[in-house]
Amino acid sequence: MKITDLRLFWISSYPRTDSLFVPPSSIQFHSEFPKFKLLKQEILKKWLDNIIRTSKHKTGPLHFIFCSDSYLLDINIRFLKHDYYTDIITFDYSEGTLISGDLYISIDRVRDNSLKQEESFEHELHRVMVHGVLHLLGFTDKSKASKALMRKEEDKYLSLLK
């Protein structure tokens, strides 16, 4: 399976108009994690869309897939050749100012990180979600300075959700 196969898995049901995908809702949430139900979905969709629009971009198809450590580890090994756990993997399908992608989030990692950071599970989950969106908007976290900037942006947008 290729990364494009993952994309086609989630968007294959979209109607097509002149080779453009027209999603019924640009931001969608899926769960591959047993018994996980994302709360406040409509509020989160508006919040995420606002982040993108504030950054002078348009919201295209975004799929947040909530999964287990083992599910995300398999993706990490198969597609990125990394043999370690992570909280999020973002596949970027953006074109120009249209932001689009699949964001796989490990509920296990979020739960563990929330305990380590002494934050609520919900707060840490929202941080990881905005972190993935910021990657789609071009932010990186490879250097100390870029990590600090990304954390500042995460905090800014998290404050808007309260």
Task: Explain what you see.
The protein is of the alpha/beta class. It has a single domain (3-161), classed as 3-Layer(aba) Sandwich (Collagenase (Catalytic Domain)). The protein has 6 helices and 6 strands; from the N terminus they run αβββαβαββααα. It has helices at residues 3-11, 41-54, 69-80, 107-117, 121-136, 144-161, and strands at residues 16-17, 20-21, 27-31, 58-67, 88-92, 98-106. The strands form 2 sheets. A 4-stranded mixed β-sheet has the order 3-4-6-5, sandwiched between helices. Strands 1-2 form a two-stranded antiparallel sheet. Strand 5 and strand 6 (98-106) form a beta hairpin. The longest helix is centred in the last third of the chain and has 18 residues, at 144-161. It is globular, with a radius of gyration of 15 Å. The protein starts with a helix and ends with a helix. Mean pLDDT is 88; it is low at 1-5 and 7-24.
> How are strands sequenced across the largest beta sheet?
3-4-6-5
Write the CATH homologous superfamily.
Metalloproteases ("zincins"), catalytic domain
Individual helix count: 6
Major sheet summary line: 4 strands, mixed
Distance between the termini: 39 Å
Give the class from helix and strand content and strand pairing: alpha/beta
Strand content: 15-25%
The SSE string, one letter per element, is: HEEEHEHEEHHH
Low-confidence stretches: 1-5, 7-24
In short:
The chain is of the alpha/beta class and 162 residues long. Helices cover 49% and strands 20% of the residues. It has one domain: Metalloproteases ("zincins"), catalytic domain (Collagenase (Catalytic Domain)), CATH 3.40.390.
